[in-house]
Design a protein that fits this description.
- There is one protein chain.
- The protein is α+β, with helices and mostly antiparallel strands.
- It has a single domain, classed as 2-Layer Sandwich (Mago nashi protein), CATH 3.30.1560.10.
- Helix content is 26%, strand content 27%.
- The strands form three sheets. The chain has a six-stranded antiparallel beta sheet with strand order 5-4-3-2-8-9.
- Helix 2 packs antiparallel against helix 4.
- 25% of the residues are buried.
Length: 225
């Protein structure tokens, strides 16, 4: 369980936005104790609640005959306009990968698309991971961001075993936080906003692992100053 927690913390740390570029990001363990001016600080989420978009987006329109339909989308940024995003879509054995980042002071413009035919064993592994994670619809809708600087995850699934349209959201920016405090707050906000029950972080990680070029793209988008 400790190894799983470390993996999840690393995943969350990778999405933290640094406005002051050139500052090295130091990875700290979630379980590490922390003090501010000699006193332990209580971590609180940035919001008490969020609204949910319950409109049926029909993301798989025209694909009714497919037996496996999965769409995982992640958007990250520090404003509504300056955002990068990536997406992993699985339709039976076909996987579609998308990545896009804007041209701004911190990032270079990148637009990436690729199609991959998955082996049957990979599709079975994905479905088994979904089952083991015990994910389900906790409440209807996709959580809406309570502020412009946020990370949002959206997961859509249609299969014989599961129908789901949900996600999580958390705030990226807080200049007064240490990395350990940031990790704890992210965990709270994801749990508070999530419309998905079960181990959704494990599912996000699993789907991202299928996107072989993702680490390269995430690094390549950063401007060299």
């Amino acid at each position: 369980m400790l190894n799983q927690d470390k993996a999840e913390d690393k995943y969350k740390l990778s999405t933290r936005i640094k406005i002051n570029y050139g500052i090295a990001f130091i990875v700290m363990l979630l379980c590490q104790s922390y003090t501010v001016y000699g006193q332990t600080e209580q971590i609180k989420p940035s919001f008490d609640s969020v609204a949910y978009d319950t409109i049926n987006r029909r993301v798989f329109k025209g694909l009714e005959s497919a037996s496996v339909k999965i769409d995982y989308y992640r958007t990250i940024g520090y404003s509504y306009g300056d955002r990068y995003w990536y997406e992993i879509i699985i339709i039976d054995s076909l996987m579609l990968l998308n990545f896009q980042s804007p041209d701004n002071v911190d990032w270079d413009y990148i637009k990436y698309q690729k199609q991959v035919v998955l082996e049957d064993s990979v599709v079975k592994r994905v479905l088994l991971a979904l089952k083991k994670a015990q994910i389900a619809q906790k409440k209807p809708g996709i959580p809406l961001p309570p502020a412009a600087g946020y990370t949002g995850d959206r997961l859509y699934i249609e299969s014989e075993q599961l129908n789901l349209a949900g996600g999580t959201v958390y705030i990226n920016l807080n200049g007064e936080e240490t990395d350990a405090e940031y990790l704890q707050r992210v965990k709270m906000e994801m749990a508070l906003s999530s419309s998905i029950s079960g181990n959704y972080i494990k599912v996000f990680n699993m789907l991202e692992s299928l996107f072989a070029d993702l680490p390269f793209l995430l690094e390549s988008k950063n401007k060299q100053h």
